Amino acid sequence: MISPALAGDAEVGMVDTSSGQWHLREPDGSQRSFYFGTPGDTPFLGDWNCDGVDTPGLFRQDGFVYLTNENPLNGGIAIGEITFFFGLPGDQPIAGDWNGDGCDTLGIYRNGKVFLRNSLTTGVADIEYFFGVAGDRPFAGDWDGDGIDTPGIYRNSSGQVFYTNENPVGPVAATANDFFYGIPSDEFVPDDWDGDGVDTVGIFRPPETRFYLRNTNSTGPADETLVFGQRGWTPVGGDLESRSASLNAPSELALGPVGLGATGTGTVQLSFGGDSGDIDLRITSINFTGGNSANFSVAPLADPQIGFGETRNVEVTLAPTALGLNQTFMRIRHTGVN
Ligand SMILES: [Ca+2]
Ligand SMILES: [Ca+2]
Ligand SMILES: [Ca+2]
Ligand SMILES: [Ca+2]
Q1: 90 C-alpha vs ligand 4 centroid, how far in Å?
Q2: Within a domain: 2
Q3: Which ligand has the minimum distance to the alpha carbon of residue 47?
Q4: CATH no. for residue 292?
């Protein structure tokens, strides 16, 4: 691929799996290194305690998973706070939020079959389905920005990336998109590089020790490249920034009585607070639950990027087709915080 020489602020990590040493690159370009795991573990990052910050996890080849909720300070050692058994030797682990509850859990890819579990405990898969074929290399991400992670694969034989946007009860997940990106010797590490709530492709190219990151899931050049890590290390992607802020919005929207076939509007104010002033947040979707959700619509936010301490008004329109329906519950998805 063609690479513009862009130095970016991407958060990436690299793990020296021969020693268990992790190296995380912060958005300001600084680096922190610490130890977690033993030689041969398969590393990944995820948000195990649902606080918006991704921290390390390991899959050991005996099927044991070790997770920590902290990224230790430079020179530190992480302790496996959560341990459970999931999978078999030879399985390939993936981490993600399969059910959209804001918490990442584990999955396993085994010869073209996906096994997902929604809790961090020993047990059988909650969901299993086929996606891809034996030999495909799995990863996971939120390709459509709906808050639910789903698998993708890289196929060495064709050089194609495939992903699905669903975690079906079975038997087969439908391919949502496929495109060419990278080469078979690349290591795939998709993530949300530009913070818009959508995960997109990225690769680490070992001979160059360079990441090639693209902000759309399509064939084309990298939007950002950066040199980090060493040949032989394993790349991991995640949101490493420690942020603390909260979205303040009513969970219940009462628009008052609206007649059948008529239209009513209401305004919801969103504001961000917390104890960190260095963040921006982006509203990715607003959904309604309860009532007849199809009868609600929301005016698009003129500017969904909201700075710390700012507020936005969201206009909601209610057009009931059933009598007695005048309120619902809204769910607002956004990047950066819980
Ligand atoms: Ca976390
Ligand atoms: Ca989850
Ligand atoms: Ca998704
Ligand atoms: Ca993105």
Answers
A1: 31
A2: no
A3: 1
A4: 2.60.40.10
The tens digit of pLDDT for each residue in 270-326 reads: 776 655 545 566 777 776 665 544 566 777 777 777 776 777 777 777 666 655 544
pLDDT tens-digit readout, 3-44: 333 445 678 999 999 999 999 998 778 889 999 999 999 999
Same domain, 222 and 290: no
Same domain, yes or no: 156 and 278: no
In the three-class reduction of DSSP (H, G, I as helix; E, B as strand; rest coil), residue 311 is classed as strand
SS3 of 210-256: EEEECCCCCCCCCCEEEECCCCCCEEEECCCCCCCEEEECCCEEECC
What's the CA-to-centroid distance between 94 and ligand 3, angstroms?
15
Domain residues for the domain of 255 are: 245-334
Of the listed ligands, the closest to the CA of 119 is 2
Ligand nearest to the CA of 149: 3
Ligand nearest to the CA of 142: 3
Q: Which of 61, 59, 147, 46 is nearest to 101 (CA)?
A: 147
CB-CB contact of 107 with 97 (8 Å): no
Round the average pLDDT of the chain to a whole number and report it: 84
Whether residues 81 and 148 share a domain: the answer is yes
Measure 262 CA to ligand 4 centroid, in angstroms: 38
